[in-house]
Design a protein that fits this description.
This protein has 230 residues and is mainly α. The chain has nine helices and no strands. It comes from Streptomyces alkaliterrae.
């Protein structure tokens, strides 16, 4: 059995790298809608936007955030270990993991598929090519995969908010901004640029609040519980 000092160091290290993952993911989720170019995607202006470096960079930021989120939840689970929040946080890790796995192929189509179509449209001046974007996004399989991913993210948000509230180790409301951002992730796609950018800010706030708690709130875990008598 590791000595308590080693266990405490390991626990603290887990919280630190999880906090970094959550903080970075939150910043990237704010950058995603802020960097993304917005225009009528049935026109050559839209083709130029989707062919741009900003289009690729913004979507890659979102993809990286989705990868970092489950990693951050590993540390959050360590922070609520030994409390009633452990079980919903374990479920949240699984829904976030599977949600990210389903979202990433769709975003790959957005980054690489739509960019290739748009570059050809710009080169030829043929806006009819842009109708292929609807196939990439809204055919039955990609639309279903994306919808399931967003529902899994919504479940993640609810479970994390519930876990933090039940843990008794921080303010009960602390997980609510994170939860609200994930629950609203699918609906915000139907709003205009200001709403999408505001949602990105909400996501950043939610992720950063949890990251700050992990770094400064001294969440207790197994490492800080006394060892059983020999």
């Amino acid at each position: 059995m590791p000595d308590p000092t080693t266990a405490e160091r390991d626990h603290a290290a887990t919280l630190r790298w999880a906090a970094v993952a959550l903080a970075t993911g939150g910043v990237l989720l704010a950058l995603y809608p802020a960097l993304r170019p917005y225009s009528d995607e049935t026109t050559l202006d839209g083709a130029n936007a989707m062919a741009s470096g900003r289009w690729a960079l913004s979507h890659l930021a979102g993809m990286l955030a989705f990868i970092l989120m489950p990693l951050g939840l590993i540390g959050l689970r360590a922070a609520v270990d030994g409390t009633p929040g452990r079980r919903p946080l374990t479920a949240a890790f699984l829904t976030a993991w599977f949600g990210a796995g389903l979202a990433l192929p769709y975003y790959g189509g957005e980054v690489f598929g739509l960019q290739a179509i748009s570059e050809e449209s710009v080169r030829t001046g043929d806006t009819e090519l842009l109708t292929l974007a609807d196939s990439v996004r809204m055919d039955a399989v990609p639309a279903t995969v994306f919808s399931v991913a967003m529902l899994l993210f919504a479940a993640t948000g609810v479970l994390v908010a519930l876990a933090v509230a039940r843990s008794g180790r921080t303010a009960r409301w602390l997980g609510l901004p994170f939860g609200a951002a994930l629950v609203l992730y699918l609906p915000q796609f139907f709003g205009g640029p200001p709403l999408r950018i505001a949602h990105g800010v909400l996501a950043a706030v939610g992720f950063l609040l949890l990251a700050r708690w992990l770094l400064t709130g001294s969440p207790r875990g197994d490492a800080e519980r006394p060892a059983p008598p020999a």
